[in-house]
Amino acid sequence: MTVTAGRFVGQSVKRKEDPRLVTGHGTYVDDITVPGLLHAAFLRSDVARARITSIDTGAAAALEGVHAILTATDLNDHVRGPMLPTLFVDGAQGPSAPIKPLAAGDVRFVGDPIALVVAESRAVAEDACDLIEVGYDILEPVVDFEQAASSTELVHAELGSNVGSTMALPPDESLDAAFADADRVVAATFHQHRHTNVPMETRGIVAAFDRYRDELRVWMSSQNPHEVRLCCARILGLPENKVRVTQSDVGGGFGQKYFMPHDEMVIVLASHLLGRPIKWIEDRRENLVASNHARADKADVQLAVDADGRFVAARIDHLEDSGAYPMGGTGGTGAFVAMLFTGPYRVPKLGWSTTAVWTNTCGRGAYRGPWMFETVARESLVDVVAREIGVDPLELRRRNVIQREELPYASPSGIVFDNVSPAETLEQAATLIGYDEFRREQAAARDEGRYLGIGLGLYIEPQAGMGPLGVEAAGLRVEPNGTVNVFLGSGSHGQSLETTMAQVVAEHLGVDVDAVVVHQGDTDIAPFGGGTGGSRSGPFLSSAARQAARQIRDKAIQIAAHMLEAAPEDLDLDGGVVAVVGTPTRSVTLADVAKTAYLGSDALPPGMEPGLEVVTRYKAPTVTFSNACHACTCEVDVETGRIRLLRYVVSEDCGAMINPMVVEGQIAGGVAQGIGGVLYEHVVYDEAGNPLTATFMDYLLPTAAEVPTIEYGHIETPGITPGSHKGMGEGGAIGAPPAVFNAVADALAPLGVRLTRQPLTPSAILDAIDAAQRSPVQR
């Protein structure tokens, strides 16, 4: 199914952002300078858990160029409100860690900030940090999240437990009966390892408090400038109209910059206390050690099938590592992992539990598709079941995938899927990858002693439209010369919103896309909005932009009708010209209309308000869904453990595409991150809680040499938003991990290897082969 493209919507319009970004003329937070600017550096704990017995700042304070050294004694009592994301302030989202500006009395992870040095330069501030002497009484850390709940050592003693949250469905006799009556029950335990967002631009902020105006000015690398303003006002006790936040170009975030992180709050507090502008730019070690981590999950899963390989029941018991100070609540999305576990398949019964635990490690935070472990665990399990019952993994999915005629489909967790196409994307991906041909090639290769594999990752991706995520705003103003300014409450950090939202406005207003300029990231001019995250821009922000454009179009036509002495229904606005349909010589330009609206109000229709601008708000549906299927082929060298990806295919359904080039770019970025997560990226701690991957020498990232050319297929099932658009920004990072993991597992299956853990490094592959050879019963 396809959606008809328009003049601009549906076209691969070149990105408006690129001329400045690809030529090095973007403006990032580190480019910001203001008079009297000071620079900050954090002294961070180099032990995971300890009591602080002493802090000696004397030598550091004497260093030339040091302006101030702040510790918990200086700063912690300066806080006027909760240092939490707005979503978590009232506690409705569950408990949060006891966050403080600076460590007071003890430290709880390597990277915990103990002191802030403010100096004339970053170099001087870092030198001063090296001169601060801290005394520790070392305590036993809680590092292994699988042992945290039962440990007698507490990460947060004031909370009385290492269990941050736990949820579970009540006992269900019908579920138990479904498992008992099934022809086969397959169980497995899957571990996903800890890794992190690694944006190209690290975090950063410039905070300037003006004591005489009682105003705060903030420039920050953020995905959500209005949330930053709310947070700054809250922790300082300032009215929100005394805080202005600007987000310029942002070099990636992937969820790390959606909420206002802890360290940036400390800089704001310091600027307020000292009355001076302060800049802090995170270095790469800080980003890897002390920003946020993600993906540390474990799941015990079961799937029951009947004699025909039909799924009859599923169960998942999920455990996630929250670290010490996650970004809001426990930092995870365990309930979504559990509720979405059955995904795109017909599964009548589901049981689940999810638990989050505190550990003495860097806190958990959002990372592109934060609930994605449901897809990793489910898709990996489906392949295990297929091997157990002797059915090809593609065939097993075909027998159980939700078909279009079954929509709307109510999952056993109560989520109702509609306007999705999992069966169609499955078939398109299988066709594009040449599934049957590959199976023949694979068999021939095995005869030669080569091990090829193919893997699939099928999923449904939600976009939440609830609470603060459920409203998007757009302001639109046609200037007297006919050009169009659009103001959005978004926080684009690579999503091409300056281009795609201009396309939407141009399409529905009736002007050329080059006449539209999109503004965002400034809380003084942009309407209040929820920032950019959760794949909401495509479906929800575009709806607000479309709504604003259509309202202005209607008003412009009414004014033009009065000017031309014609009926509004006889007019059309296209290419910036309002003309009588069929008589193009009777026309006025949009610029003429705008001049009348602003400068000739006496010539407007009676009773019409002057001006040609509007601010609209779009209330999103509670949830919308997109979906995709990823397919990957690989070859594994069983002598070295090296994995080489051969082909990678994605079939995507995100409804009507605003810009196909942008869609494919978003897919590619997510796939690269997913590949990196499975094969290369790994945050490693030793038993004492010391991070062992604090540089790119140890924390490995995929490069263009490791990521294969991605092949794309598109299915366009109209969504329920006005433009039929759906979100898809997170999907690449959701579907890639199981597709790659399953491909490697498929390649090694003839050797009796059963993979259950990531990352799949060469040493891990060789260990798995060795274990299979020593335990032939596994075959």
What does this molecule look like?
This protein is an alpha+beta fold and 779 residues long. The strands form 7 sheets. It has a 7-stranded mixed β-sheet with strand order 3-5-1-12-9-10-11, sandwiched between helices. It folds into 3 domains: 18-24 and 467-619, 2-Layer Sandwich (Aldehyde Oxidoreductase, domain 4), CATH 3.30.365.10; 32-139 and 200-252 and 257-290, Aldehyde oxidase/xanthine dehydrogenase, a/b hammerhead (Aldehyde Oxidoreductase, domain 3); 297-465 and 621-774, Aldehyde oxidase/xanthine dehydrogenase, molybdopterin binding domain (Aldehyde Oxidoreductase, domain 4, 2-Layer Sandwich). Helix 18 (660-679) crosses helix 19 (731-748). The radius of gyration is 28 Å and the shape is globular. The chain is built from 20 helices and 28 strands.
Largest β sheet strand count, sense and barrel closure:
7 strands, mixed
Q: What shape does the CA trace take?
A: globular
Q: Report mean pLDDT, rounded to a whole number.
A: 96
Count the domains: 3
CATH architecture of the largest domain: 2-Layer Sandwich
Annotated CATH topology of the largest domain: Aldehyde Oxidoreductase, domain 4
Helical segment count: 20
